[in-house]
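so i finally got all the pieces together for this one. its two components total, 1334 residues if u count the protein bits. some of the lines might not be protein, just check the labels. i wanna see the whole assembly predicted at once instead of chain by chain like last time, that was a mess tbh
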Amino acid sequence: MTRVFFSSWDGRIIDERGKKPQERVNLEETGLPAEIGKEKLRAFIGWSGMVIVDPGVNIVRMLAEYYSKFQHESCGRCVPCRVGSKILADKLEKMLTAGGTETDLAYLKELAVLIRDGSLCELGISSPTPLLHALDYFEDDFKEFFNRQDREGKNTDQYRTVLTAPCRNGCPAHINVPGYIEAIKEGNFAEALAINREKTPLVGTLGRVCVHPCENNCNRQPYDEALSIRLLKRFAADYGLRNSFEVKKQVVQGTVKPDRIAVIGSGPAGLNAAYQLARKGYEVTIYEALPVEGGMLAVGIPDYRLPREILDYEVKQVKNLGVEIICNMKVGQDITLEQLKAEGYGAIFIATGLHDSAAMGCSGEDSCTMGYLPGVEFLRLINLGEKVNLGDRVAVVGGGNVAMDCARSAVRMGVNEVNLIYRRSRNEMPANKEEVDAAEEEGIIFQLLANPTAVMETKGCVNGLECIRMQLGELDASGRRRPVPMDGSEFKLPVDTVIPAIGQIADLSFVDSESGLKISERGTLVVDRETMATPVPGIFAGGDVVLGARTVIEAIASANRAAEAIDSYLKNGRIAVGPQLHMEGFLEKAGVYREKNVPEMIGGRRRLQEEGRPVKERITGFDEADLGFKYPLEVMDEAERCVKCLRLGMAVL
Amino acid sequence: MKKTITLTIDGKKIYSDEGTTILEAARQNGIEIPTLCYHPRLKPLGHCRLCIVKIKGLDRPVTSCDNPVQEGMVVTTDTPELHDMRRRTLELLLATHPYEDCLTCVRTGTCELQEQAYRFQSELPEQLEREVPTEAVSDNPWIVRDEQKCILCGRCIQVCRINVGRSVYSMIGSGVNTRVVPYRDGQEVSLEKAGCIFCGECVDVCPVAALTETGRKEGGREWELACARGVCIECSLGCHLERRFFDNNLIKVTIPEEGEKVSWLCRRGKFGLRERESAPLTSVQKFSAGNYISCDYGEAVASTAKALRSIKENEGGETVAVLAAGKLSNEEVYLLQKLTREILATENIDLGIEQMWLKAVRRVMEISGAGTSGPAPRDIGKAESIVIVGSGLEESHPVAAMAVSQASRYGKAAVVEISGRREPLNAWDGSVITVKKDREGAVLRAVVDLLKGKESSEVAKEAGIEINELERIVSLITGSNSIFIVTPDFFTAAGEDDIEALIAVGEMTSILARGQNRMLLLSRFSNAAGVAVYGGAPGCGPGMEVIPHARGLNRDEIHNAIEDGRIRGLLIFGADNETIGLKAPFTAAVCGDYDETPEGADYLFPAQQIASKEGCFVNAAWQKRCNTAVIENQTEITSEWRLICDLAIALGAKWEYPSLEKVREEMKEKDFVGQADQNGE
């Protein structure tokens, strides 16, 4: 068990300095994990205070290090943070060699308060916190240090810093959200796009379809509404598209790597891994089973949510880096994993996604030849431009985004009556709230607390769906109330087509027993979640084929992680990710957003609403339904709502 | 109607519109809050932290510049704590500003940092070491950048992006080593490479001496400069500006401090004075034996009058012509046309106007009514769609082009340019409908046909453009709040049918209507509107009255007639490049410097410096603006309007104009142009 020596984290003082080591409280009390990567945490200082685990940590040196980093991270806009942090850092640095006096400590305190109270953003406001805590609780340690003879003695403490923010921490890919919002606030849309492109080429895609966990972590929520982060991102991407801000291949001497890498699948994970590896200087080839590029983005998301031109433009950005995409090449069918290895690829990244639908497990499901169309297949067919006849009445089963996509697409195909059958209530629907609202607006009939029991047919053709009413019972493992059928409540829906959209499964037919790859009970590939490495050296995997049916941003995060590990593997044979990801992982567990202590601000500023086409108009076809933000000055005003809750943390190892 | 918010500032109950910032609300009510990065023409930046105030209920002070007022808010703007924080913040800033230079700095006295440091009696801190270039950069003829002095307020970055629609500057680096530099594609570059058009907006908003005009060190402390509001006569837009003089020399030109949030000057307006470096003509000259020699003013006037009278009496008034290339004031235009018509008895007068432009203007006035003002650059900024007809806008009227950039990049406008070139203006969502040279009129006729309901494919084919392009223009101009900008290139090449098509488009949409004119017609001559209104064109008398049966020659015809020998006497007011080669048997010219001198003119009269010149001008929005003399005329140079009077009197007229006021009174009779709000734009 890791125990706390002193903590002022999160507004709670835990002072165990007088206690025996075994009597001190558990580190868990502070909410901080005990390890960073595989290393033990000895101390952590940051926006919310300081936590000392190991009494041997040199506090003055730790503070000097932290404030030097603070100065380095200061964006330079406002005076107290820009200049004040420099003076703090210089004074602390000087104390390390020359010691100091009580006057110096008083000056530090005065300056720290000025920076805290006078700075523009939360970096300047929050970063003085640990110094103020140290001056309050560790004054004697300072004095002891000043009197020490061997001040400049050997120091073995190692420091790892991380700059984050609640929104950035909430983003699985840790996109620098405050960074690009600041750029937008200043009207520098090119820079905003460039910051996004550090993490992914799929900026316009995310700007349209991301589930935006960043917004759920926004500190404005208790005051008015979260920043409209997704749409700000979309605006930067659209601006880039209209002004042709292209990703350029940067050929820097020495960065061109000898290894070639194969990526299987051109969905978000595959594209992102290829993009990051190509930026690192590798030659990357993507093998795509479908005739189109983009994987699920191309065949899983309908055009009204993600127009093809947006995706094409973003795929082009990946190709700009020299990535080759070979379509109609299905691994396991047109080419085997063994053959790929034999072609001399130094590493292979598998991101084949989940392109099959899960069965509902009710009778009649297997015997229908007409009118039974699994959701993923339905979306694939319409996205590939195939003709699909749904009849007059459709039942879509499921409450996730795929179900919404199917139902809303059916409406656009002119189907008279679209039913959506979901076994829980509306609150439990896993789909984005925006999607559910839009579906309802578009006239989709919600059959909530209902579950299919039988697909009804005549001569192989669907003519109805028998369902049963459900009620919510005890909580299940997911924390939601378990739906329980109500006996005798069966009812029949006369429909021409049934579209089950209750889950997706992977086609792993390319994995044979000799490959060494492992398949989990959930039917996904097993990898080390830290490095995305499969048990087979040189083969990595990411995206839905590993994560299950998750989100675009999680696929991107897994691909970025894999790209780092692949790079390390090819460079030095070590499958590992860098310290930045370790720090981010640490903070993910620690949590940065705290509803109970969001920073003080003036509320009452509602978020900007995007332009949308009226329901009547949008259900007539697959043209984009939501139009995003239009006017730069309004967009800059929205960005100005951001109070830039930057959080600088530093671990001592 | 905006909602009214009630709040309390320093114990005073204040009513303010929703959306007003705390700072604005305080200042509107006479409560002063110190600021340094705030600038009335810009969006608030929040960088300097001087405008902090206390709000009841909040622990930390907040900036008043970027926080809107809220109902019931209780604000305190000055407490000992706030004062102390402001002073200490300034001291931090001074630790990164080379205050030792204040003694010799060109901004001393008007430096905003100096002002605040004095006000708060800041102590001078030790300078921090920074990795910022120590030498000022002067990589162009106009703007000097001294990064040591930069206080990172961010005004230049913002004014360039949002008011100019460029993005020359970026902040790079971090901490005390943060710098504002010209930046392009991830690289620090020269201003020019970063896309700078040298409009000088950034210089005007810089609170310190980080950005200054090249050569500013010579010519007086800021507080010694005399200042005069006036109008720019570099092009026909007639922008509002301030001229600053020292010791009878124009030192610099700036955008007036007050006024609308968006305002522009271009390189020619701001730095034009630096571009004319040839020696000015300072005395009257007579051509004699192949050389110019100095000559007495009275003698020159008498001789000129004598020669012209003799030509008029012996060969007829139609052998005399009077030319100018714009830039004349309204009063000069009026007096000169009076001299020409009443005394020289000729209609051969062209003081700078295109015939087709004049025709278009007449038609616009028939529809909208004389005296209806037209669109100004700031209206371009508010437009939702902009249609530019003709090429060359960036060259001929840079401020209009800047307004278009601003409107499209940061406003709401979509831009379509119907022109012979391919590259669109610097505009977001800008597109060019490329036409063959001088075929803009065909597109306008196609638009008319389409509006009349003709089948689009046929119409587009005739005009030689794509259907979707044609439909795009139509959808833009029929939408609300659209503006037409017509460039001089169009008027140079246009025929009467092209003008008719232009007007028809205006009439069929909401662009032209009674009391409404949203068509910015741009002449290549400065004060062309003044020339039109006060009678400086053949057949066009004061008040734009058509002079019946008058057969006067326009400038091209005068040029030809000089070559043919049909013009015997020529008066040139304001010689320039176009008039250098002109020489009639008798020629007298007023010109500014030796470079503009017509070869072998019989008499040369020196033009007045702008500093000592008075006069009004009509801008492109059909509003009057005036220049006032700020320095006394200490030279021998007689003002142009006096010269015209002296010539008239020498020619036998009984003119009595003791002052310009008398002239203006007489002009009022036919005038229909309103005075521009001097604080406007």
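Chain B touches chain A through 48 residues (CB under 8 Å).
The mean pLDDT of chain B is 90.
anyway lmk what u think
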